Amino acid sequence: MAGSANITGRQNYVMGIGHPKNQALTESPPAVFSTDSLGNVTGLLGPDGSTISIAGENGLRTVLFGDSLTQYNNSSFSVSSISRTSNVVTVVTASAHALRNGQFANIVNMTDATYQALNTPITYISSTSFSYVNAGSDGSTSGGTVVAQNQLFQAGDFVWANALLGGRMRFVANMGVATQTTAQMLARIDDVFALNPQVVYFQGGTNDVNGDVAYATIIANLQSIIAQITSRNILCVIKTIPPYGGAGAFYTAARNANLQNVNQWIRRAATVYKGLVVVDAYNAIINPTDANGYGTASMYQASDTVHYNSKGALAIGRKAYTALVNLLPEVDNKVTSITDNYGFNTANLDLHDRAPWTNSGGTVNAPATGTAPTGWIVDATATWAVAPAISCVSRSDGRGFDITATMTPSVAGSALTVRTDSTAQNARLPSFVGKTYRWAAEVSISGASGANIRNLQFYNSASIGGPSGTLAAAINGSSTASQIAIDSDGVFFFTSPEFVIPSGAVTNCSATFKLEFDAAGTAVTIKIGSVRMMPMDV
């Protein structure tokens, strides 16, 4: 160890006006990280004084843990009907679930809790039905939600945090369950440890405050959760509780005061728990001019004063980036195998690397105009004040070209789609059965302010061995106006959840970007850089 840095306490503690009720903390030295001679973080010093390596070419294994604000990091589907026969449960969803054989899902919020399951593999039946194994009595129930573990959703702040961090967190599973309190989370924390995480990205306390759980009880539960995570030499990233979005069903002055007190305790905890990083979600979306302490209205779901939308998620994601950028090791996003040289080696079949490395050869369909690279197709829908102009621009790092599209929307629903030609891509897909991969793509946006972007999506569809579905979605978006995500410029490196190539022939595989607008707006430019499947079995 070349040196050490007391990073967490100094970087993440937000000064409060005092600790409410003098609630005691289990005191331990602030988090200390080992560094090299240049000051780069190389490891975390555990409670026993040992050094925990946090290096990793593919990012740190990360489990999401908490309530509905955690669950919202994944796409979800409503259950139309669910029944069980001989311990096999059959689910019919209200809309296409886009899952494939062997992919994982959480079955939550069921009227009959015996049907619930976390991180369970599914068997594909049809586009709106699947089954899973779950012991219990034969019968049926109603209601419930399917959380698609292979589809990250832009209303979740982890999605944006990891995109800004260049994919430094390796998504393992989302253990968020809507409506749960910290006591319920504490009761199932061993499920998190069973997944062998290096990082736990944690959100809890909202439902406690809304249910009038006493401050001392909330703190005792949080203390136990944090202590159990950090004592196992796992980095714990905890968020403060977001503010209420307005005077809705849950807001009262007393609850708001309890929320503030809990947040002050969380902020102070960063100075005394080794291995704890605080992301101040509250300060990310609070409206500082509101006398009631409400959050910024535009950052919440429509008619919802508890759950933030994609815009709020991005704001919190930026807070997480600031808290973690100097702690988590960078992932090498340019080279992912010994034979890969970022697309210049056309004989390399290890990666899905036919990204924008050429400057001609693709298909651009009207009303879009211009040039796309080999293996790519560009489509535009609706009408435009200025139709999308497509070009292949040399990258500043000298490594090939970016697909660049500049456009001005004129009506709601205007959309640009940039997708791979599945026929051209199949020959380059590393479809090694049983191997684990994640999709990765670099996207930059400029001129976002005033463009009225509704959502940005990056998803990957495939037909393998029969049923079609989404192998993994690095980011999935909603088409509703309440999900407006991006109103400021940024560079994002989207990484999907991991997936295993199932058995069966690959008959179709394509990567798709979609940029959709909510209304007429000003000109915006999007650039798509590297796009590949990163092998994770290393």
Offer a quick outline of the entry.
With 538 residues, this protein is of the alpha+beta class. The protein is built from eleven helices and 30 strands. Strands 6, 7, 8, 9, 10, 11, 12, 13, 18, 20, 23, 25, 26 and 29 form a 14-stranded mixed β-sheet that branches. Strands 19, 21, 22, 24, 27, 28 and 30 form a seven-stranded mixed β-sheet that branches.
Give a description of the structure.
By secondary structure, this protein is α+β, with helices and mostly antiparallel strands. It has 3 domains: 3-70 and 155-324, Rossmann fold (3-Layer(aba) Sandwich), CATH 3.40.50.1110; 74-150, Elongation Factor Tu (Ef-tu), domain 3 (Beta Barrel); 363-535, Jelly Rolls. Strands 6, 7, 8, 9, 10, 11, 12, 13, 18, 20, 23, 25, 26 and 29 form a 14-stranded mixed beta sheet that branches. Strands 19, 21, 22, 24, 27, 28 and 30 form a 7-stranded mixed beta sheet that branches. Strands 14-5-15-16-17 form a 5-stranded parallel beta sheet. Strand 6 and strand 7 (88-93) form a beta hairpin. The two termini are 25 Å apart.
Q: So, the CATH homologous superfamily of the largest domain?
A: SGNH hydrolase
Low-confidence stretches: 1-32, 37-41, 50-55, 336-352
Number of domains: 3
Give the CATH architecture of the largest domain.
3-Layer(aba) Sandwich
Biggest sheet architecture: 14 strands, mixed
In percent, how helical is the residue content? 10-25%
Mean residue pLDDT? 83
% residues in beta strands:
35-45%
N- to C-terminal separation?
25 Å
Write the layout of secondary structure elements.
Blueprint: E1 3-5, H1 7-12, E2 33-35, E3 41-45, E4 51-53, E5 60-66, H2 68-71, E6 74-85, E7 88-93, E8 104-108, E9 117-121, E10 123-126, E11 129-133, E12 139-141, E13 145-153, H3 157-164, E14 169-176, H4 182-187, H5 189-193, E15 199-203, H6 206-210, H7 215-231, E16 235-239, H8 253-269, E17 276-279, H9 281-285, H10 310-324, E18 363-364, E19 369-370, E20 376-381, E21 384-394, E22 401-409, E23 415-420, H11 422-426, E24 436-446, E25 453-464, E26 468-476, E27 490-495, E28 499-500, E29 506-517, E30 524-535
Parallel strand pairs: 5-14, 5-15, 13-26, 15-16, 16-17, 18-20, 19-21
Antiparallel strand pairs: 1-2, 2-3, 3-4, 6-7, 6-12, 6-13, 7-11, 8-9, 8-13, 10-11, 20-23, 21-22, 22-30, 23-29, 24-27, 24-28, 24-30, 25-26, 25-29
Helix pairs in contact: 3-10
